[in-house]
Amino acid sequence: MNPGNNTLVRAKAIITEEVERAGYQVRRILLFGSRARGEARPDSDWDFFIVVDKDASFHEREDLASRICWRLTQEGIFADVFVHSEKTVEARRTNPGYLVYYALKEGVPI
What we know:
alpha+beta, Beta Polymerase, domain 2, four-stranded mixed beta sheet, 5 helices, 4 strands, 21% strand, globular
């Protein structure tokens, strides 16, 4: 088994647990960035784009992303985490001025 697969299984479990603990449901988790493109170096971090079912304020999303990052770090998974609602993703999906556009373009579902 590819060591990255085990990391993704652990990451998905942590992300799902923290999202549900915060009162949301995961709609989609995308891996994007160098690891999704197959260009990762040994010191590359993991980039996760998480789509949740309902809107949240900026501070609520940042708090959730921080909790997920902390949990992932405890497992030795160093990551950048971005959380957005389905509504926001739909509104920004075709605008290259937003991270949403690039995460959807190159992201790999996990």
